[in-house]
Amino acid sequence: MLLNATSMPHLETKQRIMSGSYALMTAAYNEEHNIEKTIESVLLQTRLPTRWVIVSDGSVDRTNEIVQKYEKEHEFIRFLQLSRRPGRSFGSKVRALHAGSDLLKDAAYDFIGNLDADVSIAPSYFEDLISHLVERPSLGLVAGFVVEEVRGEFRDRPQNRVYSVPHAAQLVRRECYEAFGGYAVLEYGGEDWHAQTCAKMHGWEVEAFPELKIFHHRHTGEGDNVFRDRFRQGRLAYSLGSDPLFEIVKSVWRLAEKPVIIGSLTKLAGFGWSWICRDQRPVSEDFVAFLRNEQKARLHHFLGRSSVTR
Length: 310
Description:
- 43% of the residues lie in helices and 20% in strands.
- It has 310 residues and is an alpha/beta fold.
- Strands 1, 2, 3, 4, 5, 6, 7, 8 and 9 form a 9-stranded mixed β-sheet that branches.
- It is globular, with a radius of gyration of 20 Å.
């Protein structure tokens, strides 16, 4: 049964959250080239976090050295160093965040957020997000739009949508975060997709704001990796229960975008492979039903709009 967030008795009043206290978590793996940009952009925030836990997830470059330097200079920064096998892993990243959350137990905050170790943000970024959360008590999860450098200038990622809240630099109302149990450890990633769906299942609204930019400095999925990444995205979509018709229509629609023709087909192949293998899904039947109902509504709206414009 869905809950109505606006009627929840435990919702804070505006007076309680006007201070806008928030805590941040960051998982970093070999980010010596980017993490200083991330840290400096937080230090310039017009509203600083009450605590920021940075977890080095098995880094073997200068990441640890860089973070430790800032930890010594700023009391609100906490550093945690973990050891594991080398290599990037979506599941490992979230496990690192879970480990870091232990350092937040004695911290006071109304909102909790994730900040990736390869992004930077404008000085008013978190204050602006908090303003949206204060103005709309039904909002549970918010972020900006991710921008990446293309031919010397930062441009919006094609997949940016107001209803799709990126994990790269987001804030979650504490009650909302606790309601869905925090970020899930998922083999193929998609913790942001999972979190926002769970938030909505509990009656919260989610939104990404185009005017708030998240500058992504480390490009992924380049060269041969783009095909592995798209195949993974297909398996991710299957693992979360995405509607097959929705995935087919989305892939066909994107065939018109020449740079991603092969990428769209590769993603669809990943989805099909997981379907053939009957991969076990890490989500409940209620989650799948809720997600598919949303997708069917979007598909109906999209098809109806397309028929009108013909």
